[in-house]
Amino acid sequence: MGPPRFRSRKDNRQAIRFTRNARFQVTVGGKLRLPKIGDVTVKWSRRLPSEPSSVTVVKDAAGRYFASFVVEVAAEPLPKTADEIGIDLGLTHFAVLSDGRKIDNPRFLRRAERRLRKAQQALSRTAKGSNNRTKAVARVARTHARVADARRDFTHKLSTHIIRDNQAVVVEDLWVKGLARTRLAKSVHDAGWSALVNMLEYKAARYGRTLVKIDRWFPSSKLCSACGALAGSMPLHIRSWTCPCGASHDRDVNAARNILAAGRAERLNACGGTVRPATQRRAGPGETGSHRGAA
């Protein structure tokens, strides 16, 4: 849930919640019966897995109505697999996987900028309080809604594919709020990394997978995945580098491999496995050992 948030005067979203005491009902014909409203025709996205305890009807800024039901869902564990994956999130590529695959960044907002610019220019030319302004506001909201819907659909499909094919998924705990304060803010918000991580988290819990988040300060890009040596300063424009051990690395693929290795170490440590070598102890009086002063 999260803490309560104050709504803006410019926020056109509206919502109403009906609990079980309000006597809402899903009819046999598939309609939603709401008190003081009556039967509402619903375009169902899926069947309800159980009896709902409440329903929230939301009207978004684009004028669309959605019904959100609260239901109990049982865990649906998938067959176990030996595959594990590390994910390095970025802007050039939306995600780079530890097996070498690169997922292109769709840049939904950037692709819709021309349509948004025209819609916002038309909005700025209308008079405040006029019917034309109301229509122009709705047109801008519909354009933004299409961008959000496309991004959500892409993130759902990608997260489902990753969870289905891998037993463990390792990601970085990125500080998106801090990155959004830089000159890359627009691209960071357009990417939607937080949405992907949130979807991976709840889908992993539902389907019996493991999601590991490693520290955001872990030097995944500068660490050689072959020998473990830590390179010096590495600006963002350097996309490939060679370690003194002779290994050549693609910056993003190397980072994804290091993220996977760090996630495996954390899992072993959490399960009681040996991550660090055993500490040495001094030999006892009756045990064989080197004598003091021996060369």
Question: Can you put this structure into words, describing what you see?
Answer:
With 295 residues, the protein is α+β, with helices and mostly antiparallel strands. It has 2 domains: 14-70, no CATH class; 84-270, no CATH class. The chain is 33% helix and 19% strand. The protein contains 7 helices and 13 strands. It has helices spanning 108-111, 113-124, 131-165, 176-179, 185-191, 193-206, 251-270; strands at residues 14-19, 25-26, 32-34, 38-40, 54-59, 65-70, 84-89, 93-97, 102-104, 168-172, 210-214, 240-242, 248-250. Strands 9-8-7-10-11 form a 5-stranded mixed sheet. It has a 3-stranded antiparallel sheet with strand order 1-5-6, with no helix packed on it. It has a 3-stranded antiparallel sheet with strand order 2-3-4, with no helix packed on it. Helix 2 (113-124) runs antiparallel to helix 3 and helix 3 (131-165) packs across helix 6 (193-206). It is flat and about 75 Å long. The model is unreliable at 274-283 and 287-295 (pLDDT under 50).
What are the main properties of this structure?
295 residues; alpha+beta; 2 domains; five-stranded mixed β-sheet; three-stranded antiparallel β-sheet; 7 helices; 13 strands; disordered C terminus
Put the structure in a nutshell:
With 295 residues, this protein is α+β, with helices and mostly antiparallel strands. The protein is built from seven helices and 13 strands.
How are the secondary structure elements laid out?
Elements: E1 14-19, E2 25-26, E3 32-34, E4 38-40, E5 54-59, E6 65-70, E7 84-89, E8 93-97, E9 102-104, H1 108-111, H2 113-124, H3 131-165, E10 168-172, H4 176-179, H5 185-191, H6 193-206, E11 210-214, E12 240-242, E13 248-250, H7 251-270
Parallel strand pairs: 7-10, 10-11
Antiparallel strand pairs: 1-5, 2-3, 3-4, 5-6, 7-8, 8-9, 12-13
